[in-house]
Amino acid sequence: MTDPVLYWFRDDLRLADNPALAAAVSSAKPLHLIYVFDDSGRHGRPLGAAQRWWLHQSLTRLSADLAAIGGRLDLYHGDPAAVVPALVAAIKPSSIYWNRRYHTQSIACDKALKAEFESQGIAVKTFSGTLIREPWEVASKVGAPMRVFTPFWRAARLDFSVPQPKPAPSRLETAPFALSGPVAVPLQDLKLLPTTPDWSGGMAEHWQPGEQGALETLDRFIDGGFEGYGEHRNRPDLPSTSRLSPYLRFGEISVHTVWHTAEASLHTGRSLATTEDLRIFQSELGWREFSYHLLYHQPDIAKINVQRSFDGFGWQNDPAKLKPWQQGKTGYPLVDAGMRELWQTGFMHNRVRMVVASFLVKHLRIDWRLGEEWFWDTLLDADPASNPASWQWVAGSGADAAPYYRIFNPMLQSEKFDPEGRYLRKFVPELTKLPNAYLHAPWTAKPAELLAAGVKLGVTYPRPIVNHEQARESALSAYKALKESA
């Protein structure tokens, strides 16, 4: 029998435009297709609860997609540093294929495995299947890592054409089960789904994980939300964002596919989006690239301030204020709507993410790391690069960060970006009957107006847990003290 080859799925749970899978298929040898679930934290950050739910659905779809073209996905549970070598010893592949990862722990694991296998005469072939540019490919004129987005993105795009996506294989030849070595397990043995209680109903209602779901989501965006994206992307009350981030996080669609589908829609007339809409959308993909660039060069970005001057900042970290923020009970409707959207759907509109993060860090003076950890557990799209980089951006402690003194006013943000209150009423239904004039700040309504709307502050809807102006002044004073002590 022809020697088989091994393909190791990781953050690339798709068939189309998957360079490592395409190379494995082109070997014309029988394939062992594997996924190793490791929740130990030894080689990367363990998935949060929402991501675990998504992974279960995604692996279900991937298994079905592979089976439809003759493939078989074998699942394993354990440390890949032990599982993969044991599997290699059992199946004796002539070569091994995978797409690269970018966290230090993952890179170290991959390098050690590659060296081990190559010492045995087994070829290990790795590819770029996650990003437009590899993090080490973009540098300043003196060869240093980039710290500011605009020059980073300019350098990343300079004399570089984003590759066209490649189609999925039409047929696979699957190798027989290994007769020895680690035993593949059924998906349910990975215990990815919540059980007591099962809180995933809202996510199941709003999302279709898997490659087909990713392509359909992209189509909906191109045919609907892409037109006017530059102007409307900040409106949580409009279907004006792509909602592709969870699919990109799990690699169910490639960034090349997203990039070129958006670009082609303008040329073919499929979309009425403008070149400015396209430029801004592609720059959002650029922020994802920048986050991975930061992660590669500062792997502890989820724990350590990029700007070390923030190490002495006076965080208060009051659990009595953290909990209502997590529960969407702060008394500020836009903050509460965002946090409830997150809990119910595993997602939050990006503009609202900035508002709720700013509120935690600046109104409540709670360490950004506590917010990042909550998002890591509850967001479907939380990845090891964008999640901490975005939190540090809002906190003012990150690379190319918003200045700390930029403190979002949640009432003004709500009035500007949800003027009719559609988003607020969807996720804070107890305020539904309040007139728009008071919806964004219910405490400003007169008692008769609250009574007519069925709102009793402190009972049916909380009073603000902090006063906006006082919290703002307190945050600015803390920042001033930090600067003076530097």
Concise overview:
The chain folds into three domains: about 1-130, Rossmann fold; about 130-165 and about 210-295, Alpha Horseshoe (Serine Threonine Protein Phosphatase 5, Tetratricopeptide repeat), CATH 1.25.40; about 310-485, DNA Cyclobutane Dipyrimidine Photolyase, subunit A, domain 3 (Orthogonal Bundle).
What are the SSEs and their pairings?
Elements: E1 5-9, H1 19-26, E2 31-37, H2 49-67, E3 73-77, H3 80-91, E4 95-99, H4 104-119, E5 123-127, H5 149-157, H6 201-206, H7 211-225, H8 229-232, H9 245-249, H10 255-268, H11 275-297, H12 319-327, H13 333-345, H14 350-363, H15 368-378, H16 386-395, H17 410-417, H18 422-427, H19 436-439, H20 447-452, H21 468-485
Parallel strand pairs: 1-2, 1-4, 2-3, 4-5
Written description of the protein model:
The chain is mainly α. It has three domains: 1-129, Rossmann fold; 131-163 and 211-297, Serine Threonine Protein Phosphatase 5, Tetratricopeptide repeat (Alpha Horseshoe), CATH 1.25.40.80; 308-485, Orthogonal Bundle (DNA Cyclobutane Dipyrimidine Photolyase, subunit A, domain 3), CATH 1.10.579. Helices cover 47% and strands 6% of the residues. The chain is built from 21 helices and five strands. It has a five-stranded parallel β-sheet with strand order 3-2-1-4-5, sandwiched between helices. Strand 2 (31-37), helix 2 and strand 3 (73-77) form a beta-alpha-beta unit. Helix 3 (80-91) runs parallel beside helix 4 (104-119) and helix 13 (333-345) crosses helix 14. The chain is globular and about 80 Å long. The model has no long low-confidence stretch (mean pLDDT 96).
